Amino acid sequence: MLAFIRSGLEAEGVAHARHARPLQWEVGDEWHRTARPAMDGLRIAESGVQPLCAPALHAPATACARALNQAVWQEGDGTSLAERLEPFRAEFLAVARRTLS
């Protein structure tokens, strides 16, 4: 679970960096060289949630990872990253807290 949280924070940082730069990027540019390993790490950490964490965490982790993936690789829809990501992060963290108590 901690690996997923850590990877999610790294992916969110990449998403913020992406939206602070011109909308166009190319494979191999500096941003992409940072984004690719961050997103690979998130995917690996998400894969670890299923066998290592409570079943209730699977769906929120997947939803959170998908939202982060869209925030990194796709154009924004006019809403802030915080508005788009917070519901998914909040749900994951709420379920995580319940499973730990």
From the structure above, extract its key features.
single chain, 101 residues, mainly alpha, 4 helices
What would you note in describing this structure?
- This protein is mostly helical and 101 residues long.
- 76% of the residues lie in helices and 0% in strands.
- It has one domain.
- It is globular and about 45 Å long.
- It starts with a helix and ends with a helix.
- 27% of the residues are buried.
Give the count of structural domains. 1
- Give the helix/strand class: mainly alpha
DSSP E strands, number: 0
Order of helix and strand elements from N to C terminus: HHHH
Give the helix level as a range of percent: over 70%
- Rg on CA atoms, Å: 14 Å
Shape: globular
What is the averaged pLDDT score? 90
Number of helices: 4
User: How would you describe the oligomerization state of the chains in this entry?
Assistant: single chain
Q: Could you list the spans in which at least 5 consecutive residues all have pLDDT below 50?
A: none
Strand fraction band? under 5%
Main β-sheet description: none
**What gap, in angstroms, lies between the N and C termini?**
14 Å
